[in-house]
Amino acid sequence: MASLLYALRPWIVLLLMIHTSLAKPLCHPDESSALMEFKRSFRIDTDQIRCVYPKVESWPQDGHGDCCSWDGVECNEANGHVTGLDLSSSCLFGIITSNTSLFRLLHLESLNLALNDFNSSSIPYGFGGLSRLRYLNLSISEFSGKVPADISRLSRLISLDLSSEWASLEMPNVENFVQNLTMLRELDLSSITMASPFPHVLANLSSLKSLKLSKCGLHGVLPVSIFQLPRLEVLDISYNGKLSGFIPEQQWGNPLKSLSLGGTILSGSLPSSLSNLSQLAYLDLQRSKFMGQIPASLANLTQLSYLDLSVNNFTGDISHWLGNLARLNYLDLSDNQLSGQLPSSFENLTQLVRLNLSFNNWQCEIPNSLWELKGLGYLDLGRNNFSGTVDLHKLKNLESLLLDFNNISFVSKPEINATLPKLSTVSLVSCNLREFPRFLGYLKGLEWVDLSNNKIGGSVPSWMWNGSRETLMDMGLSHNYLTDFENGHINLPMLTYMDLSHNLLTSFVNNQINQSLPMLTYLDISSNSLKTALPSPPPLAVYYNISNNFLFGEIQSICRARSLVILDLSINRLNGGIPSCLGNMVSLSILNLGENKLEGMIHHDYPKGCALKIIDLTNNRLQGPIPRSLANCSMLEYLNLGYNQMHDRFPSWLSKLTKLKAIILKSNKFHGPVETHQNQFNFSNLHILDLSNNGFNGVLPSKLLQSFHAMKVIVSQDQLEYIHTSQRLPQSLDTAIAIVAYDMKLMNKGTEREYSKVPYALMGIDLSNNKFEGCIPDLVGDLKSLISLNLSNNILTGSIPPSIANLTVLESLDLSRNKLSGEIPQQLAQLTFLSSFDVSHNQLSGPIPRGSQFNTFGTSSFAMNEGLCGSPLPKKCTAVGDNIPLPPSPLKEENDNDSIFDLDWKVVLIGAGAGFFIGVVLGNLIIDEKSRWFLYYSKMMAKRWKTPRRHRIIRSRARN
Ligand SMILES: *[C@@H]1O[C@H](CO)[C@@H](O)[C@H](O)[C@H]1NC(C)=O
Ligand SMILES: *[C@@H]1O[C@H](CO)[C@@H](O)[C@H](O)[C@H]1NC(C)=O
Ligand SMILES: *[C@@H]1O[C@H](CO)[C@@H](O)[C@H](O)[C@H]1NC(C)=O
Ligand SMILES: *[C@@H]1O[C@H](CO)[C@@H](O)[C@H](O)[C@H]1NC(C)=O
């Protein structure tokens, strides 16, 4: 009997199924027509990125049949009413209005319209009528505007998700909104702008399992009671940048699995009771204000797979807890103050894929067990003081290796099996390297390598440079192995970025100055000791910097690179002419050939649409005029032709280039009057004009001065930033932006000093050492933001205009060696920033102003003016009226404030200078998806940074 029953069982089941399906009522016609109407109110747009499958397309065209069987529709088995509608990711495009047929589905308990495109329309009023709703998901669907308040009437809701990707929705009164939603288990309102204090009422929703309020603009204090919600498993309140509070020391009763508090201003230390959270798998506290020791009890969080404590102020030792967390897959402790030891062994951390310990204070040895973590894909130990020997040969999954600023060495024997097929990014900045790490020669996938700021001397080996057979054999590799390399020639076929700057390199093996790095777009070998001819640039080079070496010979080979955007060959011994191909490089934006021995005329023909922003040809032997075609370079901001032998009239046509900020023609053979009566000038953005040491004559060019509109507005201290231009780099570096700041030599108390950055507020005019004659026009007093004015050594006559007293930020005034007469205007004593003043060698008379800065100038400032009297000169003033009283000095107090230029900038005389400072901010080249917005890798380098202080590579991240 028993066996018979067993045999019959499948039949019984089948019969039952038929029975129920027969008994199931069909859907109600009003509901099926409501569904059809809803369907027809949208267009299907399968191009949406979130479109997976257009469910409504499978619904019958005529709307006949049982709607309960339609894709995405669910009905009540007993009465046939539609209770569920799931059209998520269904490619819907259109608008839902408040008379939508959707609101006729009064029996709906579950509605999911997530991941469609409602075209920035607002969420309609009317959901509140669907009073049976328990589950409502409208997330990531391009809604905008205010969340209608009637949703808050849905007191049966268990799950509500209105989160969006962009902050396009607003909820002005969240406290009211959630008040009656007491059944909620899941609430996600991420990216809805609330701009309110944290809603305390949430702490009453004791059913909550998941609460997500990321990026809501919440402020105030996070109530501790949130952490006490008894069923809470997921809490995400990250990126509410004004939300403060702390994590309480408490008995954690709840089953928390995921805790995200990053990007807030939560502070304090981590309580050791956190270790009660035995199910915690995800902990993200990055970019907040936490501090103190990380409690050793974290060792008990054995389920933890994701731990991000980066960019806080944690201190102390991690060795007592880290080694235990065997499930860790993502660990980021970067940007803290951690020190002491690493765990004695990484043996347990076999799941690690990403490890970032950079920017801390470790000074210890790296345990060898780290090199056993076969799964590692990203390793950043940079900016510490780790020591030890790096052995990579087991890290077959490694993609990025960053060890900057440590004291490390590499296992010296080349391992035949050492290919690391995935390794594409290697950064070994300032690692005390004395030779090229040999493992680099094996990296066929290498795209990005930075070896700058080391002590690598001698020749660039050909396995780095052009991959010839000979040097591979130098490396002790067998011929068999050679076949592994593409054609046995090109070692680094993928290399796009190489920085070897600031080393001690002298040459290239076998004097190979043609390399075959086919993909290289960024090459920096600046600040080495290369004594060779100019290596020809890689054919795809966008950035080529080989400044500050001892290169000699002509620069014709530069024409090989047609895509250059930034070219810097400055400070070498290059000679010959400037090749005319430079004029045809349509993308060239920054050109620096300064401080070489280049000669001849500049005869390139700049085409229309010329992209040059910076031209620096200073200190060469160039002759002839400035090419008129430069007027086509409408982007030009900086032109420095100083210290050459150029021979031309003042290039008044430069006035067409309205972006020009600095013109430096110092020390050439320019001549003639600067302006004639038909000249019109419009140098409205000019900050710096240096025409000194030329043969200009005629009257001081007052129309020219009048056109310097930027100099007529005082730049407030808030706006104190450096003059720079930014330049996007194309091609494979398309995430990089080069920031180029002007670098100038400036006279400081008679000595020329170099500044790698020029503050935006630095405005100066230097017309000294010419043959200008006539009076100093009154309108000089309009150039209110001038910091420095030098008119010395001309043939100026007349008196010093009292309007100069309007130049309230003036720090340096030199009118010496002219034929000025009359008195020094007493008003000049009001110039409280004036720290350098020279009127010597004129024909001035009368009393020297007293008070304020004038008490600090020595006799040399006034020497050789027979008629001057009073302190500091020995000659007493005797004539009536000569002994004037001290002028009132209302600005006296300001004098005690720091000058905006601080120490270094106290005295600034414009000199000519060469060069500029280049920093490159690289985008996501080495950055993972998650933190793209917050992490960036910025690499600053400046040529001639010889001392350790200036010799730095800055990798910085925005701290909040
Ligand atoms: C919450 O419910 C109470 C009682 O039903 C009601 O009086 C109140 O208006 C509701 N609040 C909101 C914001 O809907
Ligand atoms: C880890 O948990 C165990 C048992 O729950 C406890 O005895 C131990 O003290 C905890 N360790 C730390 C470091 O808190
Ligand atoms: C980190 O903590 C130290 C000492 O407590 C403090 O001086 C420093 O300002 C803090 N740094 C940050 C970025 O909060
Ligand atoms: C590895 O895990 C075991 C077991 O939990 C533990 O005893 C050991 O101390 C851990 N090793 C390190 C280096 O922390």
TrEMBL record:
Keywords recorded for this protein, A-Z: Cell membrane, Glycoprotein, Leucine-rich repeat, Membrane, Receptor, Repeat, Signal, Transmembrane, Transmembrane helix
Keyword Membrane: yes
Pfam families: LRR_1, LRR_14, LRR_8, LRRNT_2
Matching SMART domains: LRR_TYP
Membrane disposition: Single-pass type I membrane protein
Domain Disease resistance R13L4/SHOC-2-like LRR: 98-311
Localization (cell): Cell membrane
Domain Leucine-rich repeat-containing N-terminal plant-type: 28-76
Transmembrane portions of the chain: 907-927
Domain of life from the UniProt record: Eukaryota
Signal sequence, start to end: 1-23
Primary location: membrane
GO cellular component: plasma membrane
InterPro entries reported in the protein's UniProt record: Leu-rich_rpt, Leu-rich_rpt_typical-subtyp, LRR_dom_sf, LRR_N_plant-typ, LRR_R13L4/SHOC2-like, RLP23-like
Gene3D superfamilies registered for this protein in UniProt: Ribonuclease Inhibitor
Protein family membership: Belongs to the RLP family.
Protein name according to UniProt: Receptor-like protein 6
